[in-house]
Amino acid sequence: MIRTATPADVPVIHEMVRELADYEKALHEAKATEEQLHEALFGERPAAFAHIAEAEDGRVAGFALWFLNFSTWRGVHGIYLEDLYVRPQLRGGGHGKALLTELARICVERGYERLEWSVLNWNTPSIDFYRSLGARPQDEWSVYRLTDGALKDLGS
């Protein structure tokens, strides 16, 4: 079952964000707090949205955390999927596909024309899964990021 996240889900979302960061070998970079996630998802001006996948026994199996982006070429919003995570012991049960299906449904319903995300180059199980759904890599683009000192230097 896929459902929209509620404020009561913030602790488990935070826990799974940390599990995902650990899986991606970057736990030391996962600094977000439960309070920050609550504000981003449920504050006065939400900046992100989340959906929860539940197993048949009611356990939280995974989550998708996303926000709106905008295409100047297409002139409409799209969804950028920041995190998609299914707990290892519950993988293979269709939860990841169900989460992506729900986001695709939202795109179609609202007239959004893109559903995009990033995946680490070494994560072949996820890459194979995404390809099986018809997703294709955008190989002609490279992601750039400013953080920490470089961001402060440029912004000062």
Automatic annotation (TrEMBL):
Q: Which residues does UniProt call coiled coil? A: 13-40
* Cited SUPFAM superfamilies: Acyl-CoA N-acyltransferases (Nat) (SSF55729)
Keywords, A to Z, come to:
Acyltransferase, Coiled coil, Transferase
Gene3D superfamilies in the record: 3.40.630.30
Instruction: Give start and end of each N-acetyltransferase domain.
Output: 1-155
Q: Where are the transmembrane segments?
A: none
What is the designated name of this protein? Answer: GNAT family N-acetyltransferase
Lineage of the organism = Bacteria, Bacillati, Actinomycetota, Actinomycetes, Kitasatosporales
